[in-house]
Write a structure and sequence with these properties.
Elements (H helix, E strand, L loop, with lengths): L5 E12 L2 E13 L4 E5 L6 H9 L6 E6 L2 E2 L7 E4 L11 H12 L6 H14 L15 H14 L4 E5 L7 H18 L3 E4 L3 H7 L2 E5 L7 E6 L8 H4 L3 H54 L1
Parallel strand pairs: 3-8, 3-9, 6-7, 7-8
Antiparallel strand pairs: 1-2, 1-4, 4-5, 9-10
The structure holds adenosine-5'-triphosphate (ATP).
Length: 296
């Protein structure tokens, strides 16, 4: 049964910068169930981060609404935690202190000091960082920083976890390890997750549904693909699974056939427009010359 935990309702986003108006998102409608893992994929610049920022409450949409667990989202809040691609840890704090900062803020009323301490350790251990509590961000690797960022986000017990290309800056092996960790944590905690990715394999491996955005400007949801692969998922076994490869192909087809066609059509239209503009300018020049000759 669908419980529509999160709904994004007819969201439009238009930016105004230096007198120029640009519509980035148009009519985005999406409902997400509690415990669902959603991946958002689309070509660079189509508006994925803008959409995530609207759900996070960091950006206010031009129109439409985001409703989370019956409440409209109007500003950032502890019920939505975000993990960005570039680890956003405070460099002067230790690993423990980075997580403590979030926990002390969000759990001050629900947990006493000893319980908060235990909670911080538990979340850091869950991402395999229990051994590095006293290290500062400069002393740990990129993958480790991302693990701490995930621990910090999870420790806030958000209703929705928002991941903006969380593994985008990592090497392939570290990335694969973290994907495994996220799948294990997801199995254990059943978080509701929206993740932006450019990686088709990552999207298919981790998600319950893949939301594919059309090219901007005015990006829309082009297609939504249900990934009906049983969990737990094993990347090695899936590599030979025809269903996995079918889902992969579907996403690739959307990104590199359908959306490329749209792009080339737009380019052709642009080219025709430019040609017409050029011919019109030529006509006007000729007419101006004729008028000048007539005057002479
Ligand atoms: N604050 C802003 N003011 C003006 N334009 C913006 C702003 N934020 C984003 N944009 C524009 O909105 C469009 C979509 O940007 P966004 O970062 O959401 O895309 P994206 O799909 O996440 O891109 P990428 O995959 O490259 O990260 C871009 O053209 C960008 O320049």
């Amino acid at each position: 049964m669908s419980n529509r935990y999160l709904s994004i309702e007819n969201v439009d986003m238009t930016f105004h910068a230096k007198g120029v108006e640009s519509q980035v998102l148009k009519g985005i409608d999406l409902t997400v169930d509690r415990g669902e893992y959603i991946a958002i994929i689309g070509h660079s610049g189509c508006g994925k981060s803008t959409l995530l920022n609207i759900v996070a409450g960091l950006t206010e949409s031009t129109s439409g609404a985001v409703i989370l667990d019956g409440k409209e989202v109007n500003s950032p809040g502890p019920d939505r935690s975000v993990v960005f691609q570039n680890h956003s840890l405070l460099p002067w704090l230790t690993v423990y202190e980075n997580v403590a900062l979030a926990v002390n803020k969000t759990c001050a009323r629900t947990k006493n000091k000893a319980e908060r301490h235990e909670w911080i350790i538990k979340n850091l251990e869950m991402v395999g960082m229990g051994h590095a509590l006293d290290k500062r961000p400069a002393e740990i690797s990129g993958g480790m920083k991302q693990r701490v960022g995930i621990a910090r986000a999870l420790a806030m017990e958000p209703k929705v976890l928002l991941l903006d290309e969380p593994f985008g800056a990592l090497d392939a092996l570290t990335r694969a390890h973290l994907q495994e960790e996220v799948m294990r944590i997801q199995d254990e905690l059943g978080n509701t997750v929206i993740m932006i990715t450019h990686d088709v394999d990552e999207a298919v491996l981790l998600s319950d549904r893949i939301v594919m955005l059309t090219n901007g400007p005015s990006a829309r949801i082009g297609e939504i693909l249900d990934i009906e692969l049983p969990r737990p998922r094993d990347r090695i076994a899936l590599a030979d699974d025809p269903r996995y490869n079918h889902y992969r192909q579907e996403v690739l087809r959307f990104l590199y056939e359908k959306q490329r066609k749209v792009e080339s059509l737009a380019q052709r239209r642009g080219a025709v427009g430019e040609k017409e503009k050029g011919e019109k300018q030529k006509d006007e020049k000729e007419k101006a010359k004729e008028r000048a000759r007539a005057k002479a």
